[in-house]
Amino acid sequence: MSRLGSVQQKVPCLFVTQVKQEPSAKRERQPFKVLATETINQKALDADIYNAIPTEKVDGTCCYIATYKGQPYLWARLDRKANKQAEKRFKRFLYSADNSKGFTWNIEEDFRPVPESWIPAKEIKHCNGKPFPDENGHIPGWVPVEKNSKQYCWHTTVVDYDMELALVLKQCTEDPGLLEISPVPLSSFSEQTLELIGTNINANPYGLGNKKHPIHLLVPHGTFQIKNAPALNHSDILAWLDGCKEGKIEGIVWHCAEGNLIKLHRYHLGLTWPIPDPYLISQPVVVNFSGAKYDCNFEPKTLFYYFSKLEGQRFNSLRDISDLCPDFLSL
């Protein structure tokens, strides 16, 4: 497994955080904010954060590639959550004066059912051989995205199961200053995680496509490494995120040598997201569908088909491709 694609239950924040009792800027109806202090988290130090690889945190929904029905499949994130009665008990426990003894879960009875194909995420805790809830009372997991899934219809647009391909946004190998949209074998990402971004994901912070002509892409985790990352202290990171062109990102994820991940969101530092012009859309992008293995007919009216018609074309930004939607999506 690539260490840039490991599956974690809970990614610690770079800094020790504290709760401030005022409305969250990230989650509606959450009456508190989680803000970073200036103290580096011990978990980050234990993971050797000073020798980690800093990468851009891309704003989307997490996906996973693993074998299903004998072939590589895209899996969508699906956390198993507590039923109403168990959730009420858990909330009472969280807000009680004395919760030092921990909360007792009944795994068999306290959680809502999930599809038979559901699997728990790797590295989560187990108790008596069963996956155990995290600190939020959820059991992180995955469910395979079937070809004609209605629930995960946007996920289906970025995979071609017949050809076993994923539609990927990545750094161009030949030109590091250039982004590339290309089909990549699903097997290349076996047991790795990716981020699904696009029109109908998280309010579309990168301006991809539109409601009439939606565009979605997969971004492998760890794809966009930060070349000139700020020093690992509160003031330098805040200044970089708030005032540097390359810092116009949702956050930073550090990939540590043993596969551990450490993260920091903009909102941990009191900064807003989304922002008008994120760094990702400031970079030129090329469409690369060349090569004999892709010289075939993709199914009409799919993103693979549409992008294959743009082979070799270069654009100033991802939004420029979106501007062509009425033209190339009518092919």
Automatic annotation (TrEMBL):
Catalytic activity field: ATP + (ribonucleotide)n-3'-hydroxyl + 5'-phospho-(ribonucleotide)m = (ribonucleotide)n+m + AMP + diphosphate
Q: Sorted alphabetically, which InterPro entries does this protein's record hold?
A: RLIG1
Keyword field contains Ligase: yes
EC main group: ligase
Q: Which UniProt keywords apply?
A: ATP-binding, Ligase, Nucleotide-binding, RNA repair
The superkingdom listed in its UniProt entry is: Eukaryota
| Alphabetized GO MF terms | ATP binding; RNA ligase (ATP) activity
Q: Which cofactor does it need?
A: Mg(2+); Mn(2+)
One GO biological process term is: RNA repair
Q: What is its EC number?
A: 6.5.1.3
Purpose: Functions as an RNA ligase, in vitro. The ligation reaction entails three nucleotidyl transfer steps. In the first step, the RNA ligase reacts with ATP in the absence of nucleic acid to form a covalent ligase-AMP intermediate and release pyrophosphate. In step 2, the ligase-AMP binds to the nucleic acid and transfers the adenylate to the 5'-PO4 terminus to form an adenylylated intermediate. In step 3, the RNA ligase directs the attack of the 3'-OH on the 5'-phosphoanhydride linkage, resulting in a repaired 3'-5' phosphodiester and release of AMP.
Q: What is the protein name for this chain?
A: RNA ligase 1
